[in-house]
Amino acid sequence: MSRVSLPLTEIPWRPPEQALSAMKAAPWAAFLDSGGPDTDERARWSFVCLSPVETLDWQGESLRRNGVSVEGDVWVHLRDMAAAVPRYSKAEGIIPFTGGVIGMVSYEAGMALENVPSRHVSSAPKLVAASFTDVLAFDRHEERCWWISQTGNPVPDLTQPVVRSTAPFLRFAPEQSRDVWTDAVRSIVDFIRAGDIFQANLTMRWVAECADDFDELAAYRTLGQTSPAPFGAYLKTPDFSLLSASVERFISLSRDGLIETRPIKGTIALGHTLEDTIRNSRTLAADEKELAENLMITDLMRNDIGRVSQIGSVRVPQLSKVEQFPHVLHLVSAVQGQLRPELDAIDLLQATLPPGSVTGAPKKRAMEIIDLLEASARGAYCGSLFRIGNDGAMDSSVIIRSLARSGDTVSVGAGGGITVLSDPIREYEEMLLKVAPILKAFEA
C-alpha cells in the first residue's frame, strides 16, 4: 500500500481528560489512557479516538462488520480492516499511534484459538474492534497535543469545562463465597499433585446492576483516580463498554518486528510507609511460591512467542523483578523475540491469546480446569485490549483491574496463580487485595 502524508495539526495543550466529553454522545469511541508516575515512559502518551470508519462486532454466533451481518473468519476481517488503514512514513514524527485499529478480544475468543470449549455463556462480545482515522494524541511529558484526521474533520472543541460528576454507586456481589472459592483452590492443588498441570490462574467476578443512565465517564474518571495505570482504557461500543485500569502489558510489537511481553505474577501489599514497601519488596523477591509462579508463566510466554518468532531470537532480559504499582508490588518479567518477516500483528495475537499470565501451565489443560471450577464466563476480563497502528506496530494489555458493562450489569474480576505451594486462604486474601480499591471506589 502506498504511503500518504500524515494529516497532523498541533493544537493548544489540554489534559487528555478534558477531551473525554467528546466521547459521551459517540456510539463508538476509545480512550487509551496512560497513567502513573510522570517519570514512567509508559505514562507518557494518551489517545482519544473518534468516528471510526469501520467496526467489527463478534457476539455469540453473530459477526457484524459495519453493522451488517457477514460470513467468514473474524481474524480475516480484522486483518482486512488493519490493512485498509493508510500507511505513513515512520520519519514523520515521534507519536506512537496516529490511527489504526483498536479492539477488545475476550478470554473466550482466546479459548477458541486453543480449541478449548467453555461450559459458560458470556454476555460480553467475543471481539469488538474499530478502525480510527480521527485521533487526538496527548504527550503528557512535553504537554503537547495533536489532532490527526485523515477525513479532514475539524478539531473537537476542547475548551468546555470538565463536569466532575460523582462516582455512580454500584452494589457489587461476589459470585462465589470464600468457602467455595478456597475449595476450588484445593481442587487445583489436587490437579497439580496428580500431574495434570503445574499452575492455574483461578478467578472470580463481582457483579452489580446498573441503571440505563449509568454515567460511564464518571465511572472511568473514578477508576483512573483510584487506580492510575500505564494501560488504562475506555472502549465504548453500542452494546458493550470496557473501563480498564490495567497494569499489565500483554504483547507489544514494534514497527521493526520486535516482540515484547511483560508477564506479571507474584503480589504483595505495598504497605503504609516507605519502610513497609522496602520490607515487603524484599519478602516478595525471596518468596519461593511467587518466584515459581512467575518463572512458569515466563516460560509459557517464551513458548507462545516462539511460535511466531525467528529461530534463536527469543530471550528473557528481565526475570522476576519487583516493581511498584498503586496499592501493590508485583514480580514482573520481560520476554522478547523477533517476529518472522512473513507474519504480522494479527498472527502474533492468534499465537499468544489468551494471555499466559491469566491461564496457567500447560496452557490448554489449565484452561480446561479453570472452566470446570469457575462459576461464570470471564468475558472481557483476562482477555486483551489492543491497538494496531497504521505503521503495523501493536501494543496491548491484559484486561485486569477493569469494569465491563454489558446491558444492565457491570462486572469486576480478580484472581491469582495457584501452585502446589498455595495456601487457599492466603490466595483468597491476595485476590481481595487486588479488587478492593475498585469495589471501595464505587460502594462508598
UniProtKB/TrEMBL annotation:
For this protein, the record's Pfam families field holds: Anth_synt_I_N, Chorismate_bind
What is the protein name for this chain? Answer: Para-aminobenzoate synthase
Give start and end of each Chorismate-utilising enzyme C-terminal domain. Answer: 178-434
Which InterPro entries does this chain map to? Answer: ADC_synthase (IPR005801), Anth_synth_I-like (IPR019999), Anth_synth_I_N (IPR006805), Chorismate_C (IPR015890)
Residue ranges occupied by any Anthranilate synthase component I N-terminal domain in the UniProt entry = 14-146
